[in-house]
């Protein structure tokens, strides 16, 4: 399933006020989130802020990612994986992450 299709599915589930659970893959958020961790995304209605970990579709790759907001401004959000050396975009990311969730996110290690 493509990142966009997965995000649409997640968004539909969250709109029903139901948490969405999936298995993380990759190392961009290590050590906070590790490959194979189970993530539970819960809907929130609060404003997103610096430090929040959010799911979003990266416009460059069309992949669903879960990364941290580094900065919030009128232009949008600057988002980066904790283990990445540079932000996801060399400019502000898209105005509002498609899937709004914040710290309603919990995770547990598979081990």
Question: How would you sum up this structure, described in words?
Answer:
The protein is mainly beta. The chain has one helix and six strands, in the order αββββββ. The strands form two sheets. It has a three-stranded antiparallel β-sheet with strand order 1-2-6. The chain is globular, with a radius of gyration of 13 Å. It starts with a helix and ends with a strand. Mean pLDDT is 79; it is low at 98-104.
Order of helices and strands: HEEEEEE
What overall form do the CA principal axes indicate?
globular
Separate helix tally: 1
Estimated structural class: mainly beta
**How much helicity do the residues have?**
10-25%
Q: How many domain modules?
A: 1
Radius of gyration: 13 Å
How is the biggest beta sheet arranged? 3 strands, antiparallel
| CATH class descriptor name | Mainly Beta
CATH topology: Umud Fragment, subunit A
Percent strand: 25-35%
Summarize the topology.
Layout: H1 3-15, E1 20-23, E2 38-41, E3 53-58, E4 63-73, E5 76-80, E6 106-108
Antiparallel strand pairs: 1-2, 2-6, 3-4, 4-5
Keywords for this structure?
111 residues, globular, three-stranded antiparallel beta sheet, Umud Fragment, subunit A, single chain, 1 helix, mainly beta
Give a brief rundown of this model.
The chain has 111 residues and is mainly beta. It has one helix spanning 3-15; strands at residues 20-23, 38-41, 53-58, 63-73, 76-80, 106-108.
């Amino acid at each position: 399933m493509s990142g966009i299709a997965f995000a649409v599915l997640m968004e539909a589930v969250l709109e029903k006020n139901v948490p969405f659970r999936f298995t993380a893959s990759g190392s961009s958020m290590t050590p906070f989130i590790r490959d194979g961790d189970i993530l539970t995304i819960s809907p929130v209605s609060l404003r997103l802020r610096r430090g929040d970990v959010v799911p979003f579709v990266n416009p460059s790759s069309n992949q669903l990612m879960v990364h941290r907001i580094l900065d919030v401004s009128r232009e949008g959000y600057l988002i980066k994986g904790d283990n990445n050396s540079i932000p996801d975009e060399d400019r502000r990311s898209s105005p509002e992450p498609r899937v709004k969730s914040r710290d309603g996110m919990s995770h547990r290690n598979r081990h």
